[in-house]
Amino acid sequence: MDVMGILDLLIGWMEKVDKRALILGFSAIGAGIAMIAGIGPGVGQGFAAGKAAESVGKNPKGGRQATLVMLLGAAVAETSGIFSLVIAIIMLFANPLVTKEGVGIVLAASALGAGISMLAGIGPGIGQGYAAGKSAEAVGKRPGLQSVIVRTMLLGQAVAQTTGIYALVIALLLLFSQILTK
Amino acid sequence: MENLDFYNHNIFPIQIGDNQFWITTTIVNTWIIMGVLFVFAIIVRLSLKKFEDIPKGFQNVIEAIVDIFYSFTSSTMGEKNKGFAPFYGSMFLFILLANLSGLVGLRPPTADIATTLSLALMTFFMVQGYGIKSNGIGKYIKGFFEPIPFLFPLNVIGELANPVSLSFRLFGNILGGTIIMALWYSMPWIALKIGLPAVLHAYFDVFAGVLQTFIFVMLSMTFVSSAMEG
């Protein structure tokens, strides 16, 4: 059987399955995929922790401040993970697609798409963590400049978050709006 | 979870001519926050007569707040743009109270894209206006064709993307927190609603709320002051 034949069979089968079951099934996959975005904050926060440990080792006097900056930066780097969690939990506990009018396969694919969209969070997670690590290192070296460094770090992290925010907006649109179901 | 509720509700309609407008949760909550700020401002204005040369108590707090806004503005926008402090100070206080209003059970107005986009559009028009005012219309238009004329479309898109990313950053963060809190409160187990929500509120409302306020105002300041430098 050629590829098109297999696709025809799959899509034909999906159309026969109960609409609700199809949406819930795809939501399950979507929720799982959304949480893969956790890779980003994990890598980023790990890097930040490593850099902070290094700078405390080099200059124990600036240790308390370096730790503070690391925690602040890591908390910001967590944002993408929280966005993914929000989307996954909505799909699991409060799925708005189930009660929506429309073709089953489109609604189901919306759930999957919302999950995949959240993968973009990997980027901001790693990037913000890197910024947090470098800031912790800098504060460890020169604790006197803490406030300036923290401000620059927060500003840069906010800009780095932009694409992750766009992904969240698209995921929320797929879940809550009526764009594809008219 | 049938009682999950984080939506912006239509409360009652207003008919103007043929158009129907809905008064939403956001509008009501915005007016509540504005009311709080008005009352605070009036209290400060009335006590202004009693202020002395050597501050103490209430006067000390007010002077510290004003001082912080002025030094924040001048360190971000430069000493000569210190005059922006009252504007950005009011913006800061409004966004801060809006973000923190989740603590008293209101739905934060900043969890509505209409609020955040209007705030971001103020920055957008200020960027264009002050860009023209301080550099002249010729240099302003020339700025779109730099470094090479070929990049004109990209420059325009980049300029239009600023208010979008600025508004969605605040909106997404606050909405995320609002959804998580609504999910938590709609859980069927009563035991989880004792004590634990305080921790979640501390992170999603206080930490994220203050941080996003700070970031929104600081980015707005940076956009405007860099447009003025040309």
Using the coordinates above, name the CATH class of chain A: Mainly Alpha
Terminal-residue CA separation of chain A: 35 Å
- If you average the pLDDT of chain B, what whole number results? 89
Shape of chain A: elongated
Major sheet description of chain B: 2 strands, antiparallel
What is the count of distinct domains of chain B? 1
User: Would you count the extended β strands of chain A for me?
Assistant: 0
Helices and strands of chain B, in N-to-C order?
EEHHHHHHH
What best-fitting shape of chain B do the alpha-carbon axes yield? Answer: globular
> What is the H/E order of chain A?
HHHHHHHHH
Helix content of chain B: 55-70%
Main sheet strand line-up of chain B: 1-2
Q: Which consecutive residue ranges of chain A, at least 5 long each, have pLDDT under 50?
A: none
Low-confidence stretches of chain B: none
CATH superfamily membership of chain A: lithium bound rotor ring of v- atpase
Write down the oligomeric state: heterodimer
Q: What integer value in Å does the Rg of chain A equal?
A: 21 Å
Structural class of chain A comes to: mainly alpha
Strand residue percentage of chain B: 5-15%
